[in-house]
Amino acid sequence: MARPDNKKFFENLTGAGKAIAVLTSGGDAQGMNAAVRAVVRMGIYVGAKVYFIHEGYQGMVDGGDNIKEATWESVSSMLQVGGTVIGSARCKEFRTHEGRLKAAHNLVQRGITNLCVIGGDGSLTGANLFREEWSGLLNELVQQGLIDEDAVQRYSALHIVGMVGSIDNDFCGTDMTIGTDSALHRIIEVVDAIMTTAQSHQRTFVLEVMGRHCGYLALVSALACGADWVLIPEMPPEDGWEEKMCEKLSATRSRGSRLNIIIVAEGAIDRHGKAITSNRVKDLVVRCLGFDTRVTILGHVQRGGTPSAFDRILASRMGVEAVLALLETTANTPACVVSLCGNQAVRLPLMECVQMVTNKVKTLKLSVLVEFCLFFYYRSFQNNLKTYKLLAHRKPESELPHSNFNVAVLNVGAPAAGMNAAVRSAVRVGISEGHKMFAINDGFEGFYKGQIREIKWGDVGGWTGQGGSLLGTKRTLPAKHVDKIAEQIRKYNLNALLIIGGFEAYLGIMELLAARGTYEEFCLPMVMVPATVSNNVPGSDLSIGADTALNAITDTCDRIKQSASGTKRRVFIIETMGGYCGYLASVGGLAAGADAAYIYEEPFDIRDLQSNVEHLTEKMKTSIQRGLVLRNENCNDNYTTDFIYQLYSEEGRGVFDCRKNVLGHMQQGGAPSPFDRNFGTKISAKAMQWISKKLTECYRQGRVFANTEDSACLLGMRRRALVFQPVVELKPETDFVWVESHTCSKRATINTYQVKLIESIFSYIFND
Question: What is the pTM of this model?
Answer without folding.
Answer: 0.90
